[in-house]
C-alpha cells in the first residue's frame, strides 16, 4: 500500500518534470478539464468552443482574439495515445447539419488538442515572433469525481452508508428484497454476485432518473469498457466483516477494493492530477424545472464533486498532486439560452449559491474561481411579448418534440437565490409561488459566414477567464 503510493508519487513527479522542461518552456500546454453531471452540456460546450477558436468572429471578449493576436488555430494529434479522441467532427456535423440535431451522449473520457499561434503582446510583442500554445481539452463525467470519496472508505463503511441511504427509497425496493434473501457468509456463487450487482445497478439508474445525484460508484452508471468486469460486479452488503474466506461477502469486499485501486485511482492519477484549468457545467435550469428535490440533490452533488478540487480533503489525491493545483475553476450554468438575458443575473446568482458551500469550506486554496451563465450553442432568439397588458421577456425557438416554432416564457427566477434553495433544503415537494417550465429546443439551422463559429452566449467570456491570461 505504502510502496505503491510512493511509486505513484514518483511517476507524477517525473511526468511533471517532463512537462515543465520540454513543453512549458517552448510551447506551453494548457490542460483544460471540462466536466459536469450527465447531460450538463459538456459535449456541446467543447464542440462550440473549438469551432469558435478555429473561427474567432464571435469571440470579441477573448482579448487575444479581439486584438488580432491569434494568427492561426488548428487541430493537432493529442499527446495521450490511450485516451479516445473527442469526436469533434461528428459532434459539429450534428450541430451544423441541414437538419441540426444535438450530439449523442458520450459518457466517457475523451481529449482533443487545439493549437494556437499567438503573437505576444506588450513591450516585446513586436520583437518576438509568434508562439504556439497548445490547449488540451479533456471531457470527463462529473460522476467520476464523486468516486473520490470511496477512497477513504472501507467496504464496510461504504456499505453501511449506502444501505442506510437507500433504506427508504422506493427505487431500491428490488435490491433490498434480493439482499434480504442473500447470505453474505455463504460460499461465493458468481451468478448470485452478478444478480446483486445488476439489481443494484438498476437501483442506481432508477435513482438517477428520479433526480438523485448520489449515485456512486460512478462507473456502474457509465461502465464504458468495464462493462461485465469483476471490478464493477459488486454491491453493498451488511455483515461481511465476519464472513469467512471465499464467501460472497469477502469477494464483494475484494472487488470494491479493486474498483478503488484499478478504476478510481488511475483516473485521478492519469487525468485529474494533470488538469490546469477547469470548467464545471451545471444544468441549474433543468434542476429547477424538475423541482425542489432535484435542486437540493444537485447542491449536495456539487459539494461532493467540488471536494475533489480542495487540496487536503483526500490523502491519496494530495500525494498525487504534490502541491500542484487547478489554477482556475469556472462554474457555468449551461443552456442559458432557455432564458431571456434579463434573467441571466438571477441564474448566475443561483449557480453561485449552489456552489457556495463548497467554496466557503476551503476557497479552493488559491484557485481563481468565477461563475457565469452561458449557452455554448444558442438555439433561441429573444422576444418581448405583451401579456395581460404587461411586457413579458420570452425566448423563441424550435421545440425538440414537435418541431414547431414557439415563443416561450419559462417563469420568473427570484432575485434572491435563497427563495429557491431554502425550500429545496427544507424538503418542499413543489415550488410555492412560481411554476418553472423549461422547453427543450432543437438547435437552430445555421448559415455561418466565413470566419464565424456557431452562435453562443458568453462562450468568449468563459474562454477569456479560462485561458486568456496564457495567450
Ligand atoms: N438550448 C441549449 N441546449 C443545450 C446547450 N448545450 C446543451 N444543451 C442540451 O443539453 C443536452 C446535453 O448536452 P451534451 O453537450 O450532450 O451534454 P453532456 O454533458 O456531454 O452529456 P453526456 O455526454 O450524456 O454526459 C443536449 O442534447 C441539448 O439538448 C445549449 O447551449 N443550448
Ligand atoms: Mg457528452
Keywords:
471 residues, alpha/beta, three-stranded antiparallel beta sheet, binds guanosine-5'-triphosphate, binds magnesium ion
Structure description:
With 471 residues, the protein is of the alpha/beta class. Helix content is 39%, strand content 15%. The chain contains 16 helices and 10 strands. The strands form 2 sheets. A 7-stranded mixed β-sheet has the order 2-3-4-1-5-6-7, with helices on both faces. The longest helix is centred in the first third of the chain and has 23 residues. The structure holds guanosine-5'-triphosphate and magnesium ion. Guanosine-5'-triphosphate binds next to helix 2.
> What oligomerization state is this entry in?
single chain
Average pLDDT: 89
Which residue ranges are poorly predicted, with pLDDT under 50 across at least 5 consecutive positions? 9-24
Beta content comes to: 15-25%
Annotation, overall tally of beta strands: 10
Number of helices: 16
Class from secondary-structure proportions: alpha/beta
- How is the largest sheet built, in terms of strand order? 2-3-4-1-5-6-7
Major sheet summary line: 7 strands, mixed
| Distinct small-molecule ligands in the complex | guanosine-5'-triphosphate, magnesium ion
- The shape, in one word, is globular
- Helix proportion: 25-40%
Helix and strand sequence: HEHHEHEEHHHHHHEHHHEHEEEEHH
User: Separation of termini?
Assistant: 42 Å
Q: How big is the Rg?
A: 24 Å
Amino acid at each position: 500500500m505504502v510502496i505503491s503510493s510512493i511509486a505513484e508519487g514518483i511517476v507524477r513527479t517525473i511526468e511533471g518534470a517532463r512537462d515543465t522542461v520540454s513543453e512549458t518552456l517552448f510551447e506551453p500546454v494548457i490542460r483544460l478539464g471540462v466536466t459536469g453531471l450527465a447531460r450538463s452540456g459538456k459535449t456541446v460546450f467543447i464542440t462550440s468552443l473549438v469551432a469558435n477558436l478555429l473561427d474567432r468572429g464571435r469571440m470579441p471578449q477573448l482579448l487575444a482574439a479581439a486584438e488580432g493576436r491569434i494568427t492561426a488555430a488548428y487541430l493537432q494529434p493529442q499527446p495521450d495515445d490511450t485516451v479516445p479522441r473527442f469526436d469533434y467532427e461528428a459532434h459539429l456535423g450534428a450541430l451544423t447539419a441541414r437538419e441540426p440535431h444535438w450530439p449523442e451522449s458520450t459518457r466517457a473520457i475523451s481529449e482533443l488538442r487545439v493549437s494556437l499561434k499567438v503573437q505576444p503582446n506588450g513591450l516585446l510583442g513586436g520583437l518576438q515572433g509568434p508562439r504556439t500554445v497548445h490547449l488540451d481539452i479533456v471531457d470527463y463525467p462529473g460522476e467520476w469525481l464523486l468516486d473520490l470519496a470511496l477512497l477513504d472508505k472501507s467496504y464496510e463503511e461504504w456499505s453501511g452508508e449506502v444501505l442506510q441511504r437507500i433504506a427508504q427509497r422506493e427505487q431500491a425496493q428490488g435490491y433490498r428484497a434480493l439482499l434480504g434473501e442473500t447470505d453474505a457468509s455463504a460460499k461465493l456463487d458468481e451468478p448470485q454476485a452478478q444478480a446483486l450487482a445488476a439489481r443494484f445497478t438498476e437501483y442506481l439508474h432508477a435513482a438517477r432518473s428520479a433526480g438523485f445525484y448520489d449515485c456512486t460508484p460512478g462507473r456502474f452508471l457509465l461502465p464504458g469498457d468495464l462493462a461485465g468486469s469483476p471490478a464493477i460486479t459488486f454491491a453493498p452488503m451488511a455483515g461481511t466483516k465476519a464472513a469467512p474466506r471465499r464467501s460472497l461477502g469477502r469477494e464483494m469486499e475484494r472487488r470494491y477494493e479493486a474498483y478503488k485501486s484499478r478504476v478510481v485511482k488511475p483516473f485521478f492519477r492519469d487525468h485529474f492530477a494533470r488538469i490546469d484549468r477547469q470548467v464545471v457545467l451545471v444544468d441549474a435550469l433543468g434542476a429547477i424545472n424538475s423541482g425542489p428535490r432535484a435542486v437540493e440533490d444537485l447542491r449536495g452533488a456539487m459539494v461532493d464533486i467540488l471536494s475533489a478540487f480542495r487540496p487536503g480533503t483526500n490523502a491519496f489525491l494530495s500525494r498525487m498532486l504534490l502541491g500542484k493545483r487547478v489554477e482556475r475553476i469556472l462554474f457555468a450554468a449551461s443552456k442559458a439560452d432557455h432564458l431571456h438575458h434579463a434573467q441571466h443575473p438571477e441564474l448566475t446568482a443561483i449557480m453561485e449559491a449552489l456552489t457556495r458551500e463548497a467554496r466557503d469550506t476551503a476557497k479552493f486554496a488559491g484557485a481563481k474561481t468565477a461563475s457565469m451563465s452561458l449557452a455554448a450553442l444558442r438555439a433561441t432568439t429573444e422576444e418581448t411579448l405583451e401579456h395581460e397588458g404587461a411586457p413579458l421577456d420570452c425566448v423563441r425557438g424550435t421545440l425538440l418534440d414537435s418541431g414547431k416554432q414557439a415563443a416561450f416564457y419559462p417563469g420568473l427566477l427570484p432575485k434572491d437565490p435563497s427563495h429557491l434553495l431554502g425550500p429545496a433544503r427544507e424538503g418542499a415537494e413543489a415550488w410555492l409561488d412560481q411554476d418553472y417550465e423549461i422547453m427543450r429546443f432543437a438547435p437552430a439551422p445555421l448559415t455561418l459566414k466565413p470566419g464565424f463559429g456557431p452562435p453562443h452566449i458568453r462562450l468568449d467570456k468563459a474562454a477569456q477567464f479560462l485561458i486568456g491570461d496564457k495567450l
